[in-house]
Design a protein that fits this description.
The complex is a heterodimer of chains A (112) and B (115). With 112 residues, chain A is mostly beta strands. Chain A is built from no helices and eleven strands. In chain A, strands 2, 4, 5, 9, 10 and 11 form a six-stranded mixed sheet that branches. In chain A, strands 1-3-8-7-6 form a five-stranded antiparallel sheet, with no helix packed on it. In chain A, a hairpin with an 8-residue loop joins strand 9 and strand 10. Chain B contains no helices and eleven strands. Classes of the chains: A mainly beta (112), B mainly beta (115).
Chain lengths: 112, 115
């Protein structure tokens, strides 16, 4: 099974709020986890890359992986209107030439 | 800082016409991918190339062919376009060659409409 589930949204929050975006997956072999941001009419761009369980922080962004629950999260602090985009989670089991399995994306709107 | 470059950015075709989407990367990556992205369907893998000289089918290969021309370039061809192939097509590359999943780097897509 290669499914990754994401709520499509839209998720609308006021500027300055903390945003929580989530994905669940079914394949326990997945151990590489990524978050991509996609602006309208652009390609996905990498935000965060993590391996196995735990947290990783980069500026206002924190990625969290709970392999026991098969649950991955992206937190955005002090959200800005420029964060409005679609956020895709992606995961892989390593070594497979067919690459990553992507969620369908969550559309996030930050209201000024 | 070009990264992954896709051409053309937009194209309108009539049913039955053929065309080739071009993709080039300047990051010396081994692996390259073609995806299509449709509303509510997410990114679906069409074909991939793990290394120069190899190509493999992904999730939705029917109606498409690919060529890994060299390490930099990976093209996608529609031999006889159908309205169901109206989509946004993304090319991506990955360092590849190891036992881990590395991040994929994407181009900005080709928006293709088949009438």
């Amino acid at each position: 099974q290669k499914e990754v589930e994401q709520d499509p949204g839209p998720l609308s929050v006021p500027e300055g709020a903390i945003v929580s975006l989530n994905c669940t997956y079914s394949n326990s072999a997945f151990q590489y986890f990524m978050w991509y941001r996609q602006y309208s009419r652009k390609g996905p761009e990498l935000l965060m890359y993590t391996y196995s369980s735990g947290n990783k922080e980069d500026g206002r962004f924190t990625a969290q992986v709970d392999k026991s629950s098969k649950y991955i999260s992206l937190f955005i602090r002090d959200s800005q209107p420029s964060d409005s985009a679609t956020y895709l989670c992606a995961t892989g089991s390593g070594g497979g030439a067919d690459g990553l399995t992507f969620g369908k994306g969550t559309h996030l709107i930050i209201q000024p | 800082n070009a990264g992954v470059t896709q051409t053309p950015k937009f194209q309108v075709l009539k049913t039955g016409q053929s065309m080739t989407l071009q993709c080039a990367q300047d990051m010396n990556h081994n692996s390259m991918y073609w995806y299509r992205q449709d509303p509510g369907m997410g990114l679906r893998l069409i074909y991939y190339s793990a290394s120069e000289g190899t190509t493999d089918k992904g999730e939705v290969p029917n109606g498409y062919n690919v060529s890994r021309l060299n390490k930099r370039e990976f093209s996608l061809r529609l031999e006889s376009a159908a309205p169901s192939q109206t989509s946004v097509y993304f090319c991506a590359s990955e360092r590849g060659g190891g036992s881990s999943n590395q991040p994929q780097h994407f181009g900005d897509g080709t928006r293709l409409s088949i009438l």
